[in-house]
Amino acid sequence: MLKKKHLSNNHLSRGLEILYEDRDILVVDKPAGLLTVGTETNKFKTVYYILSEYVCKGCQKSRNRIFIVHRLDQWTSGVLIFAKSEEVKLHLQDHWREDTEKKYIAVVYGHLTPKEGIITSYLAENKAYVVYSTTDITKGKLAHTAYKVIKETKQFSLLEINLLTGRKNQIRVHMADKGHPIVGDRKYGKIKDEYSRLALHSKWISFKHPFSGKKMAFEAKVPDYFNTLIPNL
Predict the structure, then answer these.
(1) From the CB of residue 175, how many other CB atoms can be counted at a distance below 10 Å?
(2) Residue 175 to residue 104: CA distance in whole angstroms
(3) Cβ neighbours for 186, distance < 8 A, ≥ 6 positions apart
(4) pLDDT for position 12
(5) Does 69 have pLDDT greater than 80?
(6) Does the reported pTM lie above 0.85?
(7) Is 212 left (phi over 0), alpha (psi -120 to 50) or beta?
(8) What is the DSSP secondary-structure string of 184-198?
(9) Topology given in CATH for the domain delimited by 13-229
């Protein structure tokens, strides 16, 4: 397993932190609230824009580029991988299912029964960009979410989640389907949720380096916000 490469300046703007960098990949810890990639109304306050500026080192004529391998929702924090060439991007994506493992932590409302299991459904998206579970296999894509209860309080449960498939909003939809929406999720959970931040964090990811083939693993520190929900993590 490769160790984290030492960087003299691994903290970038807007709370973005570089966990690892070599000639082929960039692994970062994305803060909650920062988009992975731009939208029509927000093209600059994104991880992609910040890292593009970083690899170009302020030189507009630089040929250095970054490429998106996967994404995290705006209000989900944690580990995110970028490629430094299209070749690397395609290699990682082509081998994603067999080589990559991702673990999240989430704080949800209530207490789950059973305490460990796999949630399975077909996920589709409507015209309003809302993802939902369907029994129509012609409309949806199969999704599997494995969960395990780590700790409970009177109001909440802390879960470790192994994302077995990588569908859009998968964890959020599956937990809402089970009747235990993620804290702070106003889209799939409580519309008037009093918590301003989504309690979902991409804690750990492992994959094979695109050229060396070595197993790599990276972990992002759990944000302090989670301790306000589940003390003494």
Answers:
(1) 26
(2) 13
(3) 192, 193
(4) 85
(5) yes
(6) yes
(7) alpha
(8) T-TTTS-TT-S--S-
(9) Pseudouridine synthase (3.30.2350)
